[in-house]
Amino acid sequence: MSASSRTDRRQWRFTAPDGVTLAVHEVGQESGRPLILLHGLFSDADTNWMKYGHASLLAGHGFRVVMPDLRGHGESDRPHAAAAYPPDVLADDALALIAHFGFGDYDLGGYSLGARTVVRALVRGAGPRRAIIAGMGLNGLVDTARRGGHFRHVLEGIGTHQRGSEAWMAEQFLKTTGSDPKALLPLLDSFVDTSADEVVAIATPVLVVSGAEDQDNGSAEALADVLPDARYHEVPGNHMSAVTRRELGEAIADFLTA
User: Fold this and answer.
1) Can you say how many angstroms the Cα of residue 170 is from the centroid of all Cα atoms in its chain?
2) What whole-number distance in Å separates Cα of residue 42 and Cα of residue 152?
3) Parallel, antiparallel, or unpaired: how do β-strands 21-27 and 33-38 relate?
4) 76-111, pLDDT tens digit by residue?
5) From CA 131, how far away is CA 10, in angstroms rounded?
6) Strands 63-68 and 21-27, how do they pair?
7) Mean pLDDT calculated for residue range 101-127
């Protein structure tokens, strides 16, 4: 693991147990409380967490904000082989990262696919003090095939989608982040459903936060209703725009510092 020298941002390389290397970005004091944040599909740590100020806002509250680029995304390795994307591999990576850094007392959050990965990590034994599930509803956890099918359609039809359609919009976002369809397609096969029984067994205090117009993964409010210890918070926007709003970072900060 090596660090790049930046004044307010550090970057590390972490090698997962199967040899895939992940880029890990950090802001905030290294002595601060660790907060691991996972980004969404087609995105990266910079787009979800740094570009719109969420990471710096949270660092200002004393957190050491740790943001990996998920495998297949950003500056992390982007293997094309299906063998690099076994079931639940993103949760595998998150758990390995937590163990590698020796985080014993930390917080864990994610947006969209990152939020689903947080849930998978929780049901598999991750023990953060608090968790943030952003841009995710109950249906998106218990039935991953619906959204997975949508993104398969996007990736398999690059260049053919009708301008202005939902698939075309997703393709444009993919292009802005420089994502690699040949890496993302096999990643879709790694998605694992979380049963309703597993969801209701999550005892960790959770902030469920979502855009007021976001129904991409079903109802976030319904998810908060079934979690034993959850707070629901609504921010302006839809699935794509809510993550750009300062209110998202403020809601996370308020929850973690309460």
Assistant:
1) 17
2) 12
3) unpaired
4) 999 999 999 999 999 999 999 999 999 999 999 999
5) 23
6) antiparallel
7) 97
Alpha helix (H) residue ranges in 41-143: 45, 54-60, 89-101, 113-123, 138-142
Instruction: Report the Cα 27 to chain-centroid distance in Å.
Output: 17
- The tokens describing 206, both together, are 């959770």
Q: Which two tokens stand for residue 243?
A: 């993550």
Per residue in 166-224, pLDDT (tens digit) is 999 999 999 999 999 999 999 999 999 999 999 999 999 999 999 999 999 999 999 99
Q: How many residues does the chain have?
A: 258
In this prediction the pTM is 0.95
- Is residue 128 within 8 Å of 108, Cβ to Cβ? yes
Of the listed ranges 6-10, 62-66, 174-178, the one predicted with least confidence: 6-10
**What would the DSSP string read from start to end of 149-217?**
HHHHHHHHTTTTSPTTSHHHHHHHHHHHHT--HHHHHHHHTT-----HHHHHT--S-EEEEEETT--BT
3-state helix, strand, coil in the chain (%, to 5): 40, 20, 40
Name the CA radius of gyration of the chain, rounded. 17
Q: Write the CA distances from 93 to 120, 151, 200, 238, integer angstroms.
A: 11, 22, 24, 28
**Beta partners for 233?**
209
- Please name the residue ranges forming H helices in 18-108: 45, 54-60, 89-101
Distance CA 220, CA 242 (A): 13
